[in-house]
Amino acid sequence: NPPPPLPSPAPFSKSTTSTSSRHTKLYGLFDGFGDALKDAFGGAFDNAEYSAPPEGVKASARHILVKELSLCEQIKAQIEGGETTWAEAARTHSTCPSRSQGGSLGSFSPGTMVPEFDAVIFDKESDENAVLGPVSTPFGHHLIVIDKRTGVA
User: Fold this and answer.
1) How far apart are CA 139 and CA 65, in angstroms?
2) Which of 12, 32, 90, 135 has CA 20 to 30 A from 1's CA?
3) pLDDT for 94-148, tens place per residue?
4) Distance between CA 58 and CA 124 in Å, rounded?
5) What is the pTM of this model?
6) Long-range pairs for 68-72: beta carbons < 8 A, 24 or more residues apart
């Protein structure tokens, strides 16, 4: 047996005749609610607000981590005095595994690092490309260079 025929669309449509053509208007579940739905949902489905979000607060930085504050101060003086390079000092003195990449920590957002570190990195008064510190954390004492920072006002 073949399946029964589909119901006629007649109960759900209204035919109107114009002078040049015949138009069919379908009545749907939301007929009569146009303005109420528009008010309730606004432009939620128009994709206007779905463009790429602005770049958030982020930074990329390098650090040198040592246990003794006096060594941290000595390394800073050597870098600033031109006696050594940042990369050489990181490779020679840092206790962090990032020493093999010149102390590079890559890109990160606030809250990724310990609070003492974030306080320096995301402070708008902290200069980029300058040797900052010593900064003391539970891990030891850091020298920090902010390579790039975005979204900090």
Assistant:
1) 8
2) 12
3) 999 999 999 999 999 998 999 999 999 999 999 999 999 999 999 999 999 999 9
4) 12
5) 0.64
6) 68/141, 69/134, 69/136, 69/141, 71/141, 72/133, 72/134, 72/140, 72/141, 72/142, 72/143
Q: Single out the residue of 120, 99, 98, 121 nearest to residue 108, CA to CA.
A: 121
Q: Which two tokens stand for residue 80?
A: 């600033």
Determine the average pLDDT of the residues in 65-85. 98
Q: Distance between CA 59 and CA 119 in Å, rounded?
A: 12
Helix, strand, coil percentages, rounded to 5, for the chain: 30, 25, 45
Task: Name the token pair of 140.
Answer: 């030891």
pLDDT tens digits, one per residue of 6-62? 665 555 444 444 444 444 454 555 555 556 555 655 555 555 444 433 458 899 999
Residue with tokens 């390098």: 62
